[in-house]
Amino acid sequence: MSETLPGRRIEIAWPGVGFTVTAELDDRNPELADALWESLPYQSLQGHALVAGEHLYHVAPIHSLLHTHASYKIADRREAPDGTVFCSALQHLGIKYGELTEPMPAAPVGQVLAEDISTLLEAGQAVWEAVYSTKKQILVEVRRAGEAGGHRIPRLTAADAEANQLIHDVHAETERIWLSEPAELGDMHRGLIPSRAGTNETVLPTLLFVNGETRPLGYAAYGGLIRAAVADMPMDSVRQMARLLVGVPAEFLGYCGLEKLWDFTQRFMSCLDRLDRDDFLAVARHMALYINCLGGWNLHLFPWDAADPLRQQRRAEVGQPA
To answer: What residues are paired with 4 via a beta bridge?
Structure first.
């Protein structure tokens, strides 16, 4: 039986659509709950699950989410009560507000109050409409209950001068695009692609490939490298894995239009061999947050309703045996 943490109530607000809910943090994952609590307040672009069902999630500016161990996981998040708040190693804060279809373990940190569940449902439906069709940019603010809101992205430092300058530049760019559409992605989604990536002047395939490369680069490549470094993998191995994992997708994304990402990646590779563990982690954490931010915007901007007539069918509806 989970116990709420005294005084640990948070408000999750979507000012653009006029909804606010209150959640209580509990003791199921105290390290994750602490990381969330200490990061507050912050704001982010609100996203919505696109294949998993009725689930809200957004990128949280919390570096430690990438590697903090979850002491408890719900084996199948489909079975979690509506209003369950999760923290994820994908650097997400998520909230289940209805039916989910994806069976996966998840780390809960709290629960939306029962009296706010109906409001949460309305917020979820508004966000779905925005992400899927209208493209209205809905921001979320997470703050300590009863306290003022605000926003900050923590900046780390490195002893190596070149790495520290890279951190400064990546942090500045992350701040610039955190709550405002990245110009490179905006242009790409409007069909303005300087390299002309997209055979026969098509745009949708390029957008699809950009989405398909950006998400695993942030979630799997950088997230995995950070977890390996935190777990004391030998640094020579970590550096070699970095060279193998991040260069090729970043170069492709640069060709498609994400030129800043490719520039940052080349700068990271140029100083990689002399970075100790602490400096490597500082740079990689900022690269992960920047790329995950790009991924969140790309998911929002993507024209998901372009194939709206293509809907799932039950086998019986198409004359196939069940």
So the answer is: 26
